[in-house]
Design goal:
Structural class: alpha/beta
Oligomer: single chain
CATH topology of the largest domain: Rossmann fold
Number of domains: 2
InterPro entries: HAD-like_sf (IPR036412), HAD-SF_hydro_IA (IPR006439), HAD_sf (IPR023214), S-2-haloacid_dehalogenase (IPR051540)
Protein name: Haloacid dehalogenase
CATH superfamily of the largest domain: HAD superfamily/HAD-like
GO molecular function, one term: hydrolase activity
Pfam families: Hydrolase
CATH architecture of the largest domain: 3-Layer(aba) Sandwich
Keywords: Hydrolase
Low-confidence stretches: 235-242
Radius of gyration: 20 Å
Strand content: 5-15%
Order of helices and strands: EHHHHHHEHEHHEHEEH
Length: about 240
């Protein structure tokens, strides 16, 4: 399928890197941090208990589902208070979490493909997560990062896609949203008027009747290859005599 792509919006977690190993590492890092700085909290909330508290906090605060950082802070605050620890530990504990959250291991294809894609068209990160591209070290490949916390609503809300298109200065129909989640990324973007590209690494079946992804690949390299054959070349830099 050929159509003009003038810009790309890109999901992060489970598109550029798997999140499950990050989540497991975060749980252990936080527990180890609590063992040193608040042993009573570590004793009351071993890894599984802290995980259960986080799930309950999420379920109890649907108005904050777009803001995972706020939900994490609520979880940590409750654990500290319930165990008799001071809330002066809240921000240091959050920083321990956030440092671990931004230690990512890219899918083998992702980083090279991302460089190729960013050389072709402007790329904006649009994510419901709270990764920090500058900490990860790839911020220079993106025109900007728009998170659900910053915007105030999470994908698949059409507004976050529209806001990204507006910042890119590109019409919805010429922006390709790329992500791993069939609903939040692909179907959500297409309902908002964007093109949708499904990075389906695990061969999941498509279940949205009446709607098909514009593109589908099992790696990000597939998209980079497609762009090589379909995207316009970037403009040449102006020479000294221009």
């Amino acid at each position: 399928m050929n159509f003009p792509v003038l810009a790309i919006t890109l999901d992060l977690d489970d598109t550029l890197w798997p999140f499950a190993p990050i989540g497991a590492r975060i749980d252990q890092v936080l527990h180890d941090w609590m063992r040193v700085h608040s042993p009573a909290t570590a004793a009351m909330y071993p890894v599984e208990a802290m995980r259960e508290l986080r799930v309950r906090t999420f379920d109890d605060n649907p108005h904050l589902h777009h803001d995972l950082s706020a939900l994490r802070r609520l979880t940590l605050a409750e654990a500290l208070e319930n165990s008799g620890a001071g809330l002066d530990l809240l921000e240091p504990a959050y920083e321990a979490f956030y440092a671990a959250r931004n230690q990512v291991e890219f899918y083998p294809d992702a980083l090279d493909a991302l460089h190729r894609i960013a050389a072709r068209v402007p790329v904006a990160a649009v994510s419901n997560g709270n990764a920090d591209l500058q900490r990860i070290g790839i911020g220079g490949l993106f025109a900007f990062q728009l998170g659900s916390r910053e915007f105030g609503a999470a994908k698949p809300d059409p507004g976050i896609f529209h806001a990204a298109c507006a910042r890119l200065g590109v019409d919805h129909a010429h922006v390709l949203h790329v992500g791993d989640h069939a609903e939040m990324d692909v179907a959500g973007a297409m309902r908002a008027g964007l093109r949708g590209c499904w990075i389906n690494r695990d061969s999941h079946p498509w279940t949205h009747a009446g709607l098909q992804p514009d593109l589908q690949f099992d790696t990000l390299t597939g998209l980079a290859d497609w762009l090589d054959g379909n995207a316009p070349l970037p403009p040449l830099a102006a020479g000294p005599g221009a």
